Amino acid sequence: MKRTNDLKTILALFMRIGGRRLALGALLATLVVLAGMALLGTSGWFITATALAGIAGAAALNVFVPSAAIRLLALGRTFGRYAERLVTHDGTLAVLAALREKLFRGWAEPAAARALLRRPARLLFRLTNDIDALESVYLRLLVPAIAAFGAALLAAAVLGAIDWRLGVAIFAWLLLCGWGIAIGVARRARPVALRRARALERLRAQAIDLVAGQTDLAMAGRLTAQCELLQRQDARLAGTDDALHRLDTRAGWTYAVAGHATVAGVLLAVGALAQYDGLGAPAAALALLIALAALEPFAALRRGAIEAGRTWLAARRVSPRLRQEATATSLPAPTGTDVLQLTEVIATHAGRDGAALHGINLRIAAGERVAVVGTSGAGKSTLLALAAGELVPQAGSVQALPCTWLTQRTELFQDSLRDNLLLAAPQASDAQLWTALSAAGLAHEVQQFARGLDTALGEGGLGLSGGQSRRLALARLLLRRADFWLLDEPTEALDGATASDVLARLARHARGRTVLIATHLRREADLADRLLVMHAGRIVADVRRGTTEFDAALAALRPH
């Protein structure tokens, strides 16, 4: 039942996003199949009738109408095939692009993307293979099934015009045999296709681990073992490919046998009709050729049946996120002059035992600079995630104004330096980008690059040093117009000189803004006028500058 609901979700999205184009594509595919069958049947009838007329010396046969029909059907089939390919593939690609967008919007839910980023291979698989697998729903299942049904109707109409019993029999046989073989192949292929999909995902994950961690693996002496593990996984994948290929070959053989049986049955039927009812040779040839072509459209279902297991798995994986419309992640505004209010907040992380925060009550007024300090695991980053709306509390309430979050990890993408900056302000001009780079202390270095703002960055910002990456993140922070800043260890892993310069720039541009910093370093906490000391998910001290408790809490932190 769940699998059926997942497929219904995908089908509903297909029809809602590309309904008219997809319906037109299915219609064109059906017309192409019917034109091919009509072309073969008409040609056979015409050749037979012409031959018999020549033998009998008859001059009454009209050759112009059949020959014109044959030319029309041939041209229509050719142009129809081109139009069908154009419309179906254009519609499918448009739907898949829209599904990827909906998937991204689904991951915009609080903590959804963070959960997937723990397993990046899974994230990649959802966006690529899983979405691509959904094309089979339309291109290899729906379209061939509709075209095959149209072929069965045409065969039934033509043969039924000769004898209604023959028409009913051929219609029932084609549906029973054509769809029955496809359903049987799908059932046998499903477990193998599922094993293949999972094997491919594991292979990708292990390949990513090997490439990303090859230095660590080599240092630990595990590089050879990881390569052998990858080789064994590849062998398992090859085994599933071989099994699916054998199923595909058997399915093709089964359809061929069924096609021969269909022709043999129709041949016996028209032979009997010719003997007892005086059926002419041209009509018999028409019936035989229509029967010969009728089962071919059903054979096109074979590939979709082989891939049905993979398609069902992809639907089961992505449909829950596609069903879920991304809700607004903006938090309700606090009352009064506060920018952040937390009331009896309890927060947990998925997959972890116990709460990360316990009964947090906190108010931060506009213009305050607050540092959250404590050891690793005390709950500092969790508190910032709540303020940013990236984490939903298990209990209690969170109210906050819109903010900009400079995370602990600098997220840069394999794109130009300009486009990495435009993520913060898509409408920003080059002049505004240079102003932000200058404020972050990176403009001079970017001017030295041969392509300036068009300099291409590698994956994760490859091509920039750690200090340059952090300054680029600072430039994005400055481009984003927000009066509430969340800073998560902004100078972690930077050398002393770079860290001091970054902090000085942060302090200068933070004037008039509210700042919440999570840190365990004294140099960062010294920016604040108020310290929140956290331990085991609780605020154990709330002290302000000018008190001995503030000085003691600041002195207890690591200098750098």
Describe the model.
The chain has 560 residues and is of the alpha/beta class. The protein has a six-stranded mixed sheet with strand order 5-6-7-3-8-9, sandwiched between helices. Helices cover 66% and strands 10% of the residues. Strand 6 (484-488), helix 18 (496-509) and strand 7 form a beta-alpha-beta unit. The chain has helices spanning 2-56, 64-106, 112-117, 120-133, 135-162, 164-212, 214-220, 223-276, 281-294, 296-299, 301-306, 308-323, 380-388, 417-422, 430-440, 443-448, 466-479, 496-509, 522-525, 548-555, and strands at residues 338-347, 357-365, 369-373, 395-400, 404-406, 484-488, 514-519, 530-535, 538-544. The mean pLDDT is 85. The radius of gyration is 34 Å and the shape is elongated. The chain starts with a helix and ends in a 5-residue tail after the last helix.
* Sheet having the most strands: 6 strands, mixed
Strand coverage percent: 5-15%
Order of helices and strands: HHHHHHHHHHHHEEEHEEHHHHEHEHEEH
Mean pLDDT metric: 85
Structural class: alpha/beta
The total strand number stands at 9
Silhouette: elongated
| Count of DSSP-assigned helices | 20
Question: In short, what is this structure?
Answer:
With 560 residues, this protein is of the alpha/beta class. It has helices spanning 2-56, 64-106, 112-117, 120-133, 135-162, 164-212, 214-220, 223-276, 281-294, 296-299, 301-306, 308-323, 380-388, 417-422, 430-440, 443-448, 466-479, 496-509, 522-525, 548-555; strands at residues 338-347, 357-365, 369-373, 395-400, 404-406, 484-488, 514-519, 530-535, 538-544. The strands form two sheets. Strands 5-6-7-3-8-9 form a six-stranded mixed beta sheet, sandwiched between helices. Strands 2-1-4 form a three-stranded antiparallel beta sheet, covered by helices on one side.
